[in-house]
Amino acid sequence: MLNDADSRLPFPDRPILFFGGKGGVGKTTMAAAAALDLAARGYRTLLVSTDPAHSTADVLQVELSDRPRSVAEGCWAMEVDPEREADRYIDAVKSRVESAAPPRLLGEVYRQIDIARVSPGAVESALFDRFTRILEDEGEDYDRIVFDTAPTGQTLRLLSLPELMTTWIGGLIKRRRKVGALAQMWKNVAGTEAADLEQDPLLRALEERRDRFQRARRILTDPARAAFVFVVIPERLPIWETEKAVETLSKHRVPVGAIVVNQVLPVRDGDATEDPFLAARRERQAGYLARIFEKLGDWPVLRVDLQDSDPVGVDALRRIPVYEP
Ligand SMILES: Nc1ncnc2c1ncn2[C@@H]1O[C@H](COP(=O)(O)OP(=O)(O)OP(=O)(O)O)[C@@H](O)[C@H]1O
Ligand SMILES: [Mg+2]
User: Fold this and answer.
1) Which range marks the domain in which residue 243 is found?
2) Does residue 71 sit within a domain?
3) What is the DSSP letter of 102?
4) Residue nearest (by alpha carbon) to ligand 1 atom 16
5) Would you say residue 306 lies in a domain?
6) What is the pTM of this model?
7) Pocket test for ligand 1, best of 29, 30, 260 (most atoms within 8 A of CB)
8) Local confidence pLDDT in tens for the 325 residues of the chain
9) Rounded to whole angstroms, what are the CA distances from 202 to 97, 119, 176?
10) Ligand at shortest distance from the CA of 241
11) Considering every ligand atom, which ligand is closest to the CA of 32?
12) Which domain CATH number covers 259?
């Protein structure tokens, strides 16, 4: 067993950890257990849930909001609501534009911004934006930040987003500059005062966001600073999905720190009279574990046994043993 405060850290020792994996495999449970373990080792740790289902509060059995609150000694937790982040971002952009755009055009500008709010990727990018801010702002106050992310698909989109977003925003900025330059030329010809392009609030908002995403990407792809931990259960589909996800992350140069195989049927010594059903399941699991080692053995693999009850609450989470198989 590895997660005794005196023994070495079972999870990768990086300032920023992400927990991801297929739905229901135990990401929230493992992220919370890891955060509590880090705190017990003396690191000031912040656990951040970006999962819209808000299960971190259930697992820890405390109420959480989008401001960090203490949940145990040295451990704080918060939950970020993606939809609210998207609304907040749109409101902020609108209020910046309000003071700068000619009132006559404001209706149309707002309409454009509202379309952006419901277009694909808006929620993910707002969430990514927030999470970048957490890395930058809270990074000062905490030694470790643990992100409990949503199921694989969304997480991967989120992680590949900096690249998509920089391309997308780059295009928008170019278009915006072109329009601005034309307007300026026209104004020069017409002899009216030239608009100051650098003061364009939409352009500024886009550029700031692009710069933030680039900074986040640098953090995410730095193996000294961040690691992605995959939680998987010894079943066919989750393993297959994890193999694909690990491949995608590697393609985006996001460092994979560990694979946690959760809900492994515990081995009992001298269990000669084992129920044939359980014996059969255990055998299947052994096959899947072998597959995990074959396909994912390049990364550190950790094992967590299936517990006899749901590990909820700080005490139960602290007692979850993490093994090296
Ligand atoms: N090792 C374990 N032994 C027993 N129960 C477990 C174990 N790990 C997780 N569970 C239970 O399995 C359920 C799913 O766990 P959890 O909520 O952590 O998964 P998740 O991957 O975060 O799910 P979601 O994709 O919905 O966010 C919970 O009821 C949790 O208490
Ligand atoms: Mg969860």
Assistant:
1) 16-82+144-157+225-319
2) yes
3) -
4) 26
5) yes
6) 0.86
7) 29
8) 777 877 777 888 899 999 988 889 999 999 999 999 999 999 999 999 987 777 899 999 999 999 999 999 999 999 998 889 889 988 988 888 787 777 777 888 788 778 878 877 778 778 778 878 888 888 789 999 999 976 555 556 666 666 666 666 666 667 667 766 666 665 555 554 444 555 677 777 777 877 887 787 788 889 999 999 999 999 999 999 999 988 888 887 889 999 999 999 987 766 566 788 888 998 999 999 999 999 999 999 999 999 999 999 999 999 998 888 7
9) 7, 17, 8
10) 1
11) 1
12) 3.40.50.300
- 239 and 280 share one domain: yes
- Asked if residue 167 and residue 60 are part of one domain, the reply reads no
153 shares a domain with 249: yes
Helix runs in the chain, H state only: 27-40, 55-60, 82-98, 103-118, 122-138, 152-190, 201-220, 236-251, 276-296, 314-319
Report DSSP state, residue 28: H
Q: How many domains does the chain have?
A: 2
Q: Using the structure block, give the residue that is written with the tokens 């203490």.
A: 70
Ligand 2 mean position to 22 CA, how many Å?
9
3-class DSSP assignment, residue 1: coil
Looking at the structure, do residues 112 and 48 belong to the same domain, yes or no?
A: no
Cα(176) to ligand 1 centroid in Å equals 46
Determine whether the shortest distance from the Cβ of 307 to ligand 1 is under 6 A. Answer: yes
* 193 plus 286 within the same structural domain: no
Q: Which two tokens stand for residue 131?
A: 């999470």
C-alpha 80 to ligand 2 mean position (Å)? 13
